[in-house]
Amino acid sequence: MIVNEIKTALHDLSDAEKISVYQRFFKTGKGEYGEGDTFLGITVPNQRLVAKEYYNQVSLKEIKELLSFDIHEYRLTALLMLVAKYEKSKDVNFQKEIVDFYLSQTSRINNWDLVDTSCYKILGHYCYHLNEEHFLFDLAKSEDLWEKRIAIVSTMYFIKKKSLDIVTEIVLMNMNHPHDLMHKANGWMLREMGKKDEEMLTLFLDVNATRLPRTSLRYALEKLIPELKEYYMKLK
């Protein structure tokens, strides 16, 4: 019954005028990375409100049910509730249960926003505090685009804790991945790393700037001074 309540709450917030916009933005056309996704046209802030209301009432089984749907907002709201469950729990065993559940559902965490709003808050946190970095390296070796993105974006939590070596290690594993979504994610994490330690970023770029895809390099350079941006871009 709680799943039906959540679905009803989301449908009540739908906006038909936003549906076509979201479908284009999340690339749901034939052959695009979001093919098959459908939308209700609900803003993320409104989804967060629903997640806040229901997260402590749903089980992992019910979250799994919501993740099974092609409606994008069902899956994002489900993940927002999962994040809330993880963050509110002080029980390491339950956190491990959530991590295992998260890893079992990666086929449904299959768009960049679903990855980016959930992975570092759950998997990144757990891997950092429990010294379980191997989960991220295993995902980085996956053939699946979204699992690779989960691996690199999860390092955001390590960056927040100024534990930076893992960032460059995982970037290097997929530096020349063919998909632009990986180029953006790699460059984003390099940029965030550079905000914590600019010297570490420039040392990485001294060695790798010529090999980085242009999108990754542009993202990585965003917070550097213009002179350094110009220098590294000229290396391409």
UniProtKB/TrEMBL annotation:
Domain of life: Bacteria
Protein name: DNA alkylation repair protein
Organism: Faecalibacter macacae
